[in-house]
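To whoever is on call:

I kicked off a structure prediction for a single chain this morning and the downstream step that reads the tokens threw a length-mismatch warning. I double-checked the sequence; it's 291 residues and nothing unusual in it as far as I can see. Pasting both halves so you can look.
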Amino acid sequence: MDQSLQSIQWFPGHMTRTKRKIIETLPLVDIVVEVVDARIPVSSRNPDLDDLVAKKPRLLILNKADIADETATRDWLKYYKEQGIPAVAVDCKSGKGIERFVPLMREVLHDKLAAWAEKGMVKRAIRAMVVGVPNSGKSSFINRMARGGKAKVEDRPGVTRNQQWFVIDGGAQLLDTPGILWPKFEDQTVARHLAYTGAIRDEILDSEELAFGLLDILATDYEDCLRARYKLTEPLSEDRWELLQQIGRKRGMLISGGEVDTLRASIMLLDEFRGQKIGRITLERIAEEKV
């Protein structure tokens, strides 16, 4: 196992403060909106959130759906529906799918909206707390919904100054989460998946070790994509070191003596995966979650 991944630290003190702020802020909102990376919908969540917001309605945003495997994303949406968690896939950069967010939020809050209407509170704005681990696209989602974040609600009693409310179409209000909700880095699978997607700085990681792990997933689930991108015609080696060399040789990444520059090949592989040049890839499949 990669020692550099084992050494990744998360900050329990910071996490404790973040959890406390979320709990304190929950009474101000009607629903919690969690933003995750559609390529790693398990690793880009913090499991503690289930306990923190257990009694609040939930809505899940699978962001970056444009670079995730479409079939896998459909499977995840179905899975979450079966779990009683409404979910929608979006691409915050292009805005694709974003139009489904407000209607789904109103659907989730149907009973609450009906109760407000009976009390004559027809103009009562829905208030949603947006949460997400770093690199999930939480800020991109808020900016897209708030048209660049230009429309901000005035300070409210009981809300600290570092908490920002944003008005979106239809009059609903989004609350940016106070603090940062870190994922569970001590889970090595989570750490690796976050590293593959670039959520962890490459400078502190072993690029070759990461490339081996990524190749293991690609060769197993996306062999056709891998072959097409690197023009691999021979059988794929089950030894990921040799497979990386196959790719390096195809790209002419050789050093003195005709050996493959595996570090250069590793960096290239990671960059091309993150740049969607290999294809639309989802690293976590629904079958794995059900096991």
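Update from on-call: the warning came from a stale cache, not from the record. Cleared it. Sanity check on the structure: The longest strand covers residues 31-37.
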